Amino acid sequence: QVQVMESGGGLVQAGGSLRLSCTVAGMRFDRSWMAWFRQAPGKEREGVSCISRSGGESYYLDSVKGRFTISRDNAKRTLYLQMNNLKPEDTAMYYCATDLRGGRCMKPDVFNSWGQGTQVTVSS
User: Fold this and answer.
1) CA–CA separation, 114 vs 12, rounded Å?
2) Residues in the chain with pLDDT values less than 70
3) Which has the least CB within 10 A, 22, 24, 42, 43?
């Protein structure tokens, strides 16, 4: 059974930074594309960023380009999301996903395994 665990969320003022981490157990870490999604209350889950197996290819939601950076360390079996210049509209539960079964990596329905999420709250 694949286990996905996020950490690093918290409360930060606008303009601040946070780094989210995601670890995976139960599957070979470098076997799959991985992604970060977020979901705010009353809104649909949206893809924030995704990254290829080697880390050489990545994609971002337009609203986070230039502020967020996704990376992975396959040796440490850890996925990261560095978030800078945070804005109140970034407030959401952030989820890590892995085990891509095919399709576009920014779509939530293409991943089989998910973490429980970590809350990010940005105050104005």
Assistant:
1) 25
2) none
3) 42
